[in-house]
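Students often ask why inverse folding is considered easier than folding. One informal answer: many sequences map to the same fold, so there is more than one right answer. In these notes we will look at a single instance of the problem. The structure comes first.
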């Protein structure tokens, strides 16, 4: 009969030890229970925080419309824009556009006199922004690619030359 108090004490100590390994953070209208800290390999923080057409992801543009892309990066660097159209053709339409970290910019052409204008074909167009901390040497060729998988592989190949790089993708539709 004397074992019952010891059993309760051992159970209470076990619960206390379990709770001692957790951190409870109380915020207004919110409670989080965090498990004990575990050391894990760090994951590279995304360098491109925002990338979208100026009308929004999935928006519709008509042939002849001007288009721009809103970009926000965490660091200074360069953006290269490549795209794949509904027929599967891949192309580069801007290389090594300088961007300032922490500032949202609209890339709407390669110069003030050369704006991006929507052309055929109609359908879903995907655009990738590749961020690099230095200018690319333009050795990687995208011309002649007709496959999403190959397009993505070429982007990874281009980024592999840099210790830090990032890629983000967006999309829009083209109509007549």
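Output (designed amino acids):
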């Amino acid at each position: 009969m004397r074992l019952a108090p010891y059993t309760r004490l051992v159970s209470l100590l076990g619960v206390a030890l379990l709770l001692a390994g957790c951190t409870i953070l109380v915020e207004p209208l919110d409670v989080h229970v965090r498990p004990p800290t575990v050391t894990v390999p760090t994951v590279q923080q995304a360098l491109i925080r925002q990338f979208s057409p100026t009308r929004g992801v999935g928006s519709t543009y008509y042939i002849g419309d001007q288009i721009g892309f809103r970009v926000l990066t965490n660091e200074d660097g360069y953006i290269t824009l490549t795209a794949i159209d509904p027929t599967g053709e891949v192309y580069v339409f801007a290389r090594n556009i300088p961007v300032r970290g922490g500032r949202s910019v609209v890339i709407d052409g390669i110069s003030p006199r050369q704006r991006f204008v929507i052309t055929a074909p109609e359908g879903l167009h995907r655009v990738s922004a590749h961020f690099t901390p230095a200018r690319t040497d333009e050795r990687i060729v995208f011309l002649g690619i007709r496959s999403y998988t190959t397009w993505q592989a070429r982007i990874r190949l281009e980024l592999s030359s840099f210790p830090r790089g990032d890629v983000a993708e967006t999309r829009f539709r083209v109509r007549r």
